[in-house]
Design a protein that fits this description.
The complex is a heterotrimer of chains A (about 280), B (about 270) and C (about 250).
Chain A: H1 25-48, H2 54-58, H3 61-94, H4 100-115, H5 118-129, H6 136-143, H7 151-175, H8 179-187, H9 192-203, H10 205-221, H11 224-229, H12 240-250, H13 252-277
Helix pairs in contact in A: 3-7, 3-10, 4-7, 7-10, 8-9, 10-13, 12-13
Chain B: H1 2-23, E1 49-56, H2 60-73, E2 77-84, H3 86-94, E3 101-103, H4 107-115, E4 123-128, E5 130-135, E6 155-158, H5 163-175, E7 183-185, H6 188-196, E8 202-206, H7 207-212, E9 217-220, E10 230-236, H8 243-254, H9 256-264
Parallel strand pairs in B: 1-2, 1-3, 6-7, 6-8
Antiparallel strand pairs in B: 3-10, 4-10, 5-8, 5-9
Helix pairs in contact in B: 3-4
Chain C: E1 22-30, E2 33-41, E3 47-50, H1 57-65, E4 72-77, E5 80-81, E6 92-95, H2 107-111, H3 113-118, H4 121-134, H5 150-163, E7 168-172, H6 180-197, E8 200-205, H7 208-214, E9 217-222, E10 225-230, H8 232-237, H9 242-249
Parallel strand pairs in C: 3-8, 3-9, 6-7, 7-8
Antiparallel strand pairs in C: 1-2, 1-4, 4-5, 9-10
Classes of the chains: A mainly alpha (about 280), B alpha/beta (about 270), C alpha/beta (about 250).
Membrane topology (chain A): Multi-pass membrane protein
InterPro entries (chain A): MetI-like, MetI-like_sf, ModB_ABC, NifC_ABC_porter
Family (chain A): Belongs to the binding-protein-dependent transport system permease family. CysTW subfamily.
């Protein structure tokens, strides 16, 4: 970084030095490196994939089981996130009128799972809902319900890590809508619920859709909180990422196949939903 | 917990890599570090530096103590431990992690490393057997291996891809028990943690884990387990950045002082 | 009328007669500003509230519509006390300054909105048809608000408000979002619609022309206080403040 002797390959295209929209060379170089950091690992994954045996690998019972479980739990988690996250986003957007400490506390509560290592989330869930947890012990004593090591626990772990993504996407959409449309609806006879149902919700629909996609892909990739809170049992709690991690220890080819599958599903969902419901998010 | 451990290993590996690069060539300075068993009592000076030891999770307590003692003997050497599931560690070594020494909880992970040409010969330095671990007070009234088949109980085992899981599978198979596990963890310490938290009623772990748990779990002896023995191999790695120190550490672990520590923690003799 | 709108048909429901009066006597605080005003608006005699920017005119309207809370006082419509009612139960229609149409709904569904809150989508759309026809919006019925001109949007907003059959109509700076060239014609058209509505009407403006065309009484609000009231002629005869004198001197606001 000290001497400019390591001049990177200068752009060979001739351009006016201050062409409109042109990039300064450090910006261009660093942007290129940044892009490489993002893309090259995936290139390696695709390049090293055992394409010949891929069909056989993906048809394995253990792989299909993990795929079905992952799709099912991520869908359920997205549903739960929609049901809880949209109202939470409304609360957050309306909290602008609250006293500052309460507002900050609320925002922090929603932000923390976003910045928390997922494993910590898993430990926290275990301490809350585990058999000796704050609530879990009562659930066990009163109803004989134990949450950890169930498919429900997988969904819960996914909700914990994915909910903030949905909340912030919807909150952003809410903030950019004109609150006066809601006031106008009220003067036209709409109750609070009707305002929400007929005005607020349709106006933030693109944000909700974007949030749901983020939420789904995040839930699909969830690993740390799941393995800590829900464990790892084929068909019950062993989702694609966990199966991929475990396979990496003994059968790297299967692990790569699982990773490819995860990549394909994530990218597929993103493309599909973006074209259908997210015209505003298109690049 | 797995992810953070992996992250730590990766970070440590990166740091070690940088340090090694900064230190320049890590060649054998004098004749002390030959591959033959160096006598641990004679504290011949080694080239100063940091060696990275990849060790099975079940060796955590033993290697922490051994590393401290080795550093006492060789103040010029720092020992960094990366602890994890043996199979995962083996994959990392094969993938080029700059490790000096590898100690596994069973022979197959070591075979992975030897087959890749990254270790010449491994020495078995300890053995271990399985035991049932239950939460303090044994709330579910676990009596023996047969209880692992009870559907209504919460059972944690290691996944078969790691040594403790392979041993557990062999043991259950030999005993004719059709276990009903609720989770298959990726290393033995994860099983132990879930038992200690009371989240499961029982788990199969190494006897050394029960002993080192400090009373947070109770052990139940399994007579049939005596025939299912895990053999722990150790090897200085062929591409070790610090071959002399790596050989010295390996010799230290396999030598009498290492034997003392391992004995005390419940590991059997090779 | 200069435009070729369909001949004004009678309002779809309810005759214009026997409309209740609006009586307001309120104190409202918004941030650092405090507005105190008392007035009556009688059906068929629209009242213009004029005043400089920041005088609290729009706050006063919002208080009557129930969109901001009042600190003290009362708002009565006929013999109904409405100051404790939520906006959706006051029957106060509002034409917002820049109309605030629902961007996700077609013109038809905007106009049908109030009916939709009370019934099915199908019934609401049917109920909207006469209003669309009345305001010359039939050909625009399937457009979205983003595709309308300013004048068209104003007509949609007015049709939407009146289709809710309010007892009181509030207009907030109705001309300010229109191009200056359009204002003259649109103002005359709006005045016609206000007359047809026939109920108590309050129009907030800082334009003498609006006050002259749309209202027959004027209330001057300055810095949260009423400084003068009367007809424009009465104001002209004896302007109470420098602001009133300046306001009367401008030709177009």
């Amino acid at each position: 970084m000290t001497a400019p002797q390591t001049t990177p390959r200068a752009p060979t295209r001739r351009r006016p030095p201050r062409a409109h929209g042109g990039l300064a060379w450090p910006v261009a170089v660093l942007a290129g490196v940044g892009l490489a950091v993002l893309v090259l690992p995936l290139v390696a994954l695709v390049a090293r994939a055992p394409w010949g045996e891929l069909g056989e690998l993906l048809a394995r019972e253990s792989v299909l089981e993990a795929l079905v479980l992952s799709l099912g739990t991520a869908t359920a988690a997205t549903g739960v996130c929609l049901m809880l996250g949209v109202p939470l986003a409304v609360l957050l957007a309306r909290a602008a009128a609250w006293p500052t400490p309460a507002r900050r506390l609320l925002r922090a509560a929603v932000t923390v799972p976003l910045v928390l290592p997922p494993v910590v989330g898993g430990i926290a869930l275990l301490l809350l809902l585990g058999r000796r947890g704050l609530i879990g012990s009562a659930l066990d004593d009163l109803f004989g319900i134990t949450v950890p090591f169930t498919t429900g626990a997988v969904v819960l772990a996914q909700v914990f890590v994915a909910l903030p993504f949905l909340v912030f996407a919807v909150e952003g959409a809410l903030r950019s809508t004109d609150r006066r449309t809601e006031l106008a609806a009220a003067t036209l006879g709409a109750s609070r619920w009707q305002v929400f149902r007929h005005v607020t919700l349709p106006l933030v629909a693109p944000g909700v859709a974007a949030g749901a996609v983020l939420c789904f892909t995040r839930a699909l990739g969830e690993f740390g909180a799941t393995i800590t809170f829900a464990g790892s049992l084929p068909g019950v709690t062993r989702t694609l990422p966990i199966a991929s991690y475990l396979a990496m220890q003994t059968d790297p080819d299967e692990a790569i196949a699982l990773a490819l599958l995860l990549l394909a599903v994530s990218v597929g969902v993103l493309l599909l939903l973006r074209d259908r419901w997210l015209p505003g998010v298109r690049g | 917990m797995l992810r953070s451990r992996v992250a730590r290993v990766a970070l440590a590996a990166a740091v070690v890599g940088v340090l090694a690069a900064c230190a320049g060539g890590a060649g054998d300075a004098d004749g002390t570090g030959g591959p033959g068993p160096a006598t641990p009592s004679t504290a011949d000076a080694l080239e100063s530096g940091t060696i990275t030891v990849f060790a099975a999770a079940s060796l955590t307590d033993a290697f922490e103590e051994l590393a401290a003692r080795f550093e006492e003997r060789h103040p010029e050497v720092d020992v960094v431990l990366n602890l994890g599931g043996s199979a995962a560690l083996a994959q990392q070594v094969v993938a080029g992690a700059p490790a000096d020494v590898f100690a596994a909880a069973a022979e197959p992970p070591m075979a992975t490393v030897v087959d890749a040409g990254l270790a010449d010969d491994a020495t078995v330095f300890a053995t271990n057997t399985l035991e049932l671990a239950v939460p303090t007070g044994n709330p579910a009234g676990i009596a023996g291996l047969d209880d692992l088949a009870r559907e209504e109980l919460r059972i944690a085992l290691c996944d078969e891809s790691v040594p403790c899981g392979a041993a557990a599978a062999t043991l259950l198979d030999e005993a004719g028990v059709d276990a009903a596990p609720d989770t298959l963890e990726s290393d033995v310490k994860a099983v132990l943690t879930k038992v200690a938290l009371g989240e499961v009623d029982a788990g199969l772990v190494y006897r050394t884990d029960v002993r080192s748990s400090g009373g947070s779990v109770e052990g139940i002896d399994v007579p049939a387990a005596a025939s299912v023995v895990n053999r722990y191999p150790i090897a200085a790695l062929a591409e070790a950045p610090h071959p002399a120190a790596a050989a010295a550490f390996t010799a230290f672990v396999t030598g009498p002082e290492g034997r003392d520590v391992l004995d005390r923690l419940g590991f059997g003799a090779p | 009328m200069t435009r070729e709108t369909p001949a004004p048909s009678p309002p779809p429901r309810g005759p214009a007669g026997a409309r209740p009066a609006l009586h307001a006597d309120v104190t409202v605080t918004r941030g650092a500003h405090r507005v105190e005003a008392a007035f009556d608006a009688l059906p068929g005699h629209p009242l213009a509230v004029v005043g400089p920017n920041g005088a609290g005119k729009s706050t006063l309207l919002a208080a009557i519509a129930g969109l901001v809370p009042v600190d003290a006082g009362r708002v009565r419509i006929g013999d109904r006390d409405v100051d404790r009612l939520p906006p959706e139960r006051r029957r106060v229609g509002v034409l917002f300054q820049d109309y605030v149409l629902f961007p996700h709904l077609t013109v038809r569904d905007n106009v049908a909105f109030a009916a939709r809150m009370r019934g099915s989508r199908h019934d609401a759309r049917a109920a909207a048809e006469p209003w669309l026809a009345r305001y010359g919006l039939t050909t625009l019925a399937d457009r979205l608000p983003g595709e309308l001109s300013g004048g068209q949007a104003q007509r949609v907003a007015l049709a939407r408000a009146l289709a809710a059959e309010p007892e009181v109509l509030l207009l907030d700076e109705p001309m300010s979002a229109l191009d200056v060239e359009l204002r003259h014609d649109m103002r005359a058209e709006l005045a016609q619609h206000v007359r047809e509505f026939g109920g108590a009407t309050v129009v907030v403006t800082h334009s003498r022309a609006d006050a002259a065309t749309l209202a027959d009484h004027v209330l001057v609000l300055e810095d949260g206080r009423v400084t003068q009231r009367g007809t424009l002629e009465e104001l002209a005869a004896a302007p109470a403040t420098p602001y009133v004198r300046r306001m009367l001197a401008t030709s177009e606001g």
